[in-house]
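Researcher: Please translate sequence to structure tokens.
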Amino acid sequence: MDIRSAQRLAWENKQNKGFNTTDVPLEFGLLTAEVGEAFTAWRKQLPDYGEELADVFLYLTALAEMSGIDLETEVERKIAKNRERVYTRDARGVLHRVEGDGS
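Model: Translation complete:
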């Protein structure tokens, strides 16, 4: 499944179930809660870790839809941008970007 299809399906599910489709700050809060649940599942090595990551993805795609963002296009653009960036390590081993734009 591509990101665009997942975004559409996540949005349709929110609409069909009567979930939040207008309150962006609330959606960010719910997304943050899902990230916390995913972290807890990872930390405790729970069997539902993958499901929790899927929840994060679905909340993110619905937030993108709510905001009028084509997430697939943005992900493709960001991957291309990241591919062009060059990094080097300083004396302490910390990575620093030496080429690429500032975002």
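Researcher: Any highlights?
Model: The chain has four helices and two strands.
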